[in-house]
Amino acid sequence: MELIVTEIVKIIKSETNIIKREKAIAFFFLNLIRELMSLALERVDQELSGSMKNQGYQIEKKNQRSINMAFGEVTYVRRRYVKAGQESRYPLDKFMGFDKYKHYSVLAVRNILEVSSVATYRNTALAVNCLSGFNISHAQIGNLVKTAGQKIKEQQEADSRYDAQTAKKQVPVLYLEGDGVMIKGTQGRLEFHRYQVCEGLRNVTYKRRERTNAQEFVSLSRLDALNEAKEYIANTYDLANTLIISNADGGAGYAKKDFDEIVGRCAKHEHFLDVFHLNKKIKDRLCFAPELQGKLIYALEFKYDRDLVNIILDTAESKLIDELDTPQNHEHLARLRSYINRRWDDIKPFKMRNLKVTKAIGSCESNHRKYTYRVKGQGKYWSEAGAEGMLRILTCIKNRDLEQWLNSDFEAGKLISLDHKKLLAAARDSLKRRHEIHVGIQHGALTAEVAGGSYLAKLDRMLNHIKY
Q1: What residue segments make up the domains of the chain, in order of their start?
Q2: Does 185 or 427 have the greater pLDDT score?
Q3: Which domain of life does the UniProt lineage start with (predicted)?
């Protein structure tokens, strides 16, 4: 400790510039941590050798490796173990969670991904390079996002995801919502799909409330997101006595029948047409009669009176004269009538359904912001792999389980391919010629019970002069 303090004092006295002095101190501490970590890893590797030898493995050689951890790049030496008919192993790498061919630790990846969820790749690279002990480019960050997103997706879609879960929860009510959002892609427009589930609302402050036990499922594939939500509900809840309340815009994939597919059997299912989209539809279709828009919204969402609605629509039709008498306006009005008639049951207001539960629907549109602020605007264009990766990361952050998925030991989507690789590695390993331990060249001497000038004595001196 005294030597470390002495070195720090020396650095402080040697620099007069304040910024350079602090940089030098930071550099000293980073190097110190790296050296200590390298020594600690080598000691752990040495301690693991006993258990490996007990399993029949032998040390083949020692290899050096560098890994970027949260505090900087660490270079260390670890043992490689081999066993006939088995794949070679680096027990230290497995113990520390350092993946093969990867240059970043799990914590470093988690930190990078969390910053990239609120900043562009270039700004993320700038932040990481300034605040961490290693450098990374924006292209490398993009690759990390794609790789992590693919790994998370494979694990979330795995059949074995809920194998360890046995008991199911019983709740009086469960709320479901879903919607899609368009974004720009490098090969055309992309749409990501969101389903959210919660058990209700709780008061955080006097004016602010939040959803309880909320989970979100997001993917570029609607069927993938739907199936994940379906599997989650089926393995988490017992819906025999549960009221299901769903809310959506009624578009393709978001009708009542789609939510019936998600929940399966339940005590009762009440579906609502999302008020935001209903109001938007009315304003778009009645653009030629803005004075009637508020009246129609009132008749639908507060009175729920079909006769009053028809009167307002007839009034709107009577205004289609002179310059308003266009085929487009007639089509808008006809489509609005059809839209209201098709979704009349779903439009019925919450208060008129005699549901003795809290109204906890209608937040789907506002909850898009976590995603749209990152993937839309500022000229952003996404590849499918990049968009899927970023959406998966944003979803994990929203669900507060990013570390869980990054820290998981299993990758169900790769189990078969890994087994196949192990078999190939074992076959190659069995064909290798192993290095056999030998005692080397034996040195000897010729002796004979004769005089030194005999021919045997001369031969002995000649052999001893040969350099083996």
Answers
A1: 1-156+401-413+420-426, 169-382
A2: 185
A3: Bacteria
